[in-house]
């Protein structure tokens, strides 16, 4: 390891990876699902890879009563049972567990924040954390402003001007429930933390395949010249899930597919697909380009909602041979719920690169399988010189970027089937992560936690991006809220309501079969 300014570098094979400065990581909502399934396992994994300095301490904060030892024991079990970590190295665990601390606290109680400050200051002294703090809000969103204000009230939000000593706030989604509440939340947070201290997480940006979009587009010379309206017929982005809402009915029923997936994950992916090349792969440059795309998408008004948007809610059905209930019968869901579990739409980007090229977006629960992909369909060849063979049409080229599962990319093109006749067939060139790289991709949260500790905000959403995404959809939310939908309108285990297929058919297109 060689020292750099406040960080060190670790040579992991062929590339230098930065190791962050020592810090105290505080997880609010420590007994919740996210902390137990994702955050603690991600920190443990970083520790196993020597990417977490040994002095870094983690404090879990929640309302539940645990002693420090009980908390450590529980995290050990969770690593296995929830985090899916199969081989926990005993030595790494011992060292990691020794830095795990726990504080029972009611977030509304100012005294809780004084107690937290005392614990952090002790750790600062014991472990030499240099006053660096990372606060992770993994609680219900109602607590986000309360916690930010609590931290500010006891002076824990301060960082020095040069950023040598840092205090960062990681905010989970949902960032607001609509445009107005998102603005109010941002006002609250920015009353305490500066924009450069706030890291709005969108775990899709931490996915290996989403980051690979930038390498595919800007690390190759052959794609960019055709990545525009002249060659691309249309783009499809699909986030399909086979699961229902599980135990999250209470949250989901106040959210729905548009707020839960489209406004954030899908728009982040869309902006990476459509943006102009950034000058550098750095936070300001990348996020400037992404927000430009969002500004070029017209906001939905009532006419656009009627023409270009479809919603659905699943009825009962079968998935993988198992009978599943309708959404309205899920736990903690209103039996007369008007919440959509499926959303599909057509959007345009009013830029020179994309004018007139439709982007079709869809997201839904209880679809036949879990699959997230981007399909870029190119225009057909302008002329086919195979008339003598009776060939008048062939399939267009299709570039499919599979974000998950089965991560990879395939390019579909035409090849002559062997034989005497000219007989074009669709074939594909495939790249699969699993076979090309014999390495397991880090979990999205691992990557994002590391970036945040390093102070790299490239893969986090800036406020102007989040705000613009809400602006685009506010008109759509308003119309959907005002009108009662005819739900359920698709069977669990199908590809969504008939109207989603009609949306494509009207344009003479179809959803790519996944
Ligand atoms: C979350 C949503 O943000 O993303 C969930 O709240 C959804 O409803 C999840 O299931 C999907 O994430 P992934 O990584 O499994 O695609």
Blueprint (SSEs and pairs):
Blueprint (H helix, E strand, L loop, with lengths): L1 E2 L4 E4 L4 E4 L4 E5 L4 H16 L8 E6 L5 H14 L8 H8 L2 E5 L5 H18 L5 E5 L5 H11 L13 E5 L7 H12 L7 E3 L7 H11 L13 E9 L8 H4 L4 H18 L8 H14 L5 H7 E4 L1 E6 L2 E3 L17 E6 L11 E6 L6 E8 L19 E7 L3 E9 L7 E9 H4 L7 H11 L8 H20 L7 E3 L5 H8 L9
Parallel strand pairs: 4-5, 4-7, 5-6, 7-8, 8-9, 10-15, 12-20
Antiparallel strand pairs: 1-2, 2-3, 10-16, 11-14, 12-13, 14-15, 16-17, 17-18, 18-19
Helix pairs in contact: 1-13, 6-14, 9-10, 9-14, 10-14
The structure holds 6-O-phosphono-beta-D-glucopyranose.
Can you describe what's shown?
It is a single chain. With 514 residues, the protein is an alpha/beta fold. Helices cover 34% and strands 21% of the residues. The chain has 15 helices and 20 strands. The strands form four sheets. Strands 11-14-15-10-16-17-18-19 form an eight-stranded mixed beta sheet, with helices on both faces. The protein has a six-stranded parallel beta sheet with strand order 6-5-4-7-8-9. Strands 1-2-3 form a three-stranded antiparallel beta sheet, with no helix packed on it. The protein is globular and about 85 Å long. The two termini are 45 Å apart. Residues 1-5 have low confidence and may be disordered. Residues 173, 203, 241, 260, 372 line the site of 6-O-phosphono-beta-D-glucopyranose.
């Amino acid at each position: 390891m060689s020292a750099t300014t406040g960080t060190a570098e670790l040579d992991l094979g062929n590339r230098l990876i930065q190791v962050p400065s020592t810090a105290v990581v505080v997880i609010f909502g420590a007994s919740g699902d996210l902390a137990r399934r994702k955050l603690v396992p991600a920190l443990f994994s970083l520790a196993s890879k020597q990417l977490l300095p040994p002095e870094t301490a983690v404090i879990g904060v929640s309302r539940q009563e645990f002693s420090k030892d009980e908390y450590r024991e529980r995290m050990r079990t969770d690593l296995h049972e929830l985090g899916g970590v199969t081989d926990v190295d005993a030595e790494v665990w011992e060292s990691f567990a020794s830095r795990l601390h726990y504080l029972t606290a009611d977030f509304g109680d100012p005294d809780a924040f004084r107690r937290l400050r005392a614990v952090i200051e002790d750790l600062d002294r014991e472990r030499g954390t240099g006053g660096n703090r990372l606060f992770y809000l993994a609680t219900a969103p109602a607590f986000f402003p309360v916690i930010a204000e609590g931290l500010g009230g006891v002076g824990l939000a301060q960082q020095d001007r040069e950023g040598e000593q840092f205090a960062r706030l990681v905010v989970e989604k949902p960032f607001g429930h609509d445009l107005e509440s998102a603005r109010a939340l941002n006002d609250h947070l920015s009353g305490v933390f500066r924009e450069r201290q706030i890291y709005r997480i969108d775990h899709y940006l931490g996915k290996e395949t989403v980051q690979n979009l930038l390498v595919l587009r800007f690390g190759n010379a052959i794609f960019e010249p055709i990545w525009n309206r002249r060659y691309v017929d249309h783009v499809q982005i699909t986030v399909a899930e086979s699961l229902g809402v599980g135990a999250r009915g209470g949250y989901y029923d106040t959210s729905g597919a548009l707020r839960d997936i489209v406004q954030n994950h899908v728009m982040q992916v869309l902006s990476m697909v459509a943006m102009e090349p950034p000058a550098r792969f750095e936070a300001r440059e990348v996020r400037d380009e992404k927000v430009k795309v969002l500004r070029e998408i017209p906001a939905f008004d009532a006419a656009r909602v009627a023409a270009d948007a479809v919603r659905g809610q699943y009825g009962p059905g079968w998935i993988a041979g198992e009978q599943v209930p309708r959404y309205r019968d899920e736990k903690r869901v209103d039996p007369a719920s008007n919440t959509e579990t499926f959303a599909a739409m057509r959007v345009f980007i009013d830029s020179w690169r994309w004018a007139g090229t439709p982007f079709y977006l869809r997201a839904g629960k209880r679809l036949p399988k879990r699959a997230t992909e981007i399909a870029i369909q190119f225009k057909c060849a302008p002329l086919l010189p195979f008339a003598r063979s009776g060939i008048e049409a062939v399939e267009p080229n299709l570039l499919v970027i599979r974000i998950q599962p089965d991560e990879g990319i395939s390019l579909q093109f035409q090849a002559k089937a062997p034989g005497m006749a000219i007989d074009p067939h669709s074939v594909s060139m495939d790249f699969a992560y699993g076979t090309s790289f014999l390495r397991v991709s880090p979990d999205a949260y691992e990557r994002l936690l590391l970036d945040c500790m390093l102070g790299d905000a490239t893969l986090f959403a800036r406020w102007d991006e989040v705000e613009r995404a809400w602006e685009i959809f506010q008109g759509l939310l308003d119309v959907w809220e005002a009108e009662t939908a005819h739900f359920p309108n698709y069977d669990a285990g199908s590809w969504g309501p008939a109207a989603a297929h009609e949306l494509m058919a009207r344009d003479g297109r179809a959803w790519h079969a996944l």
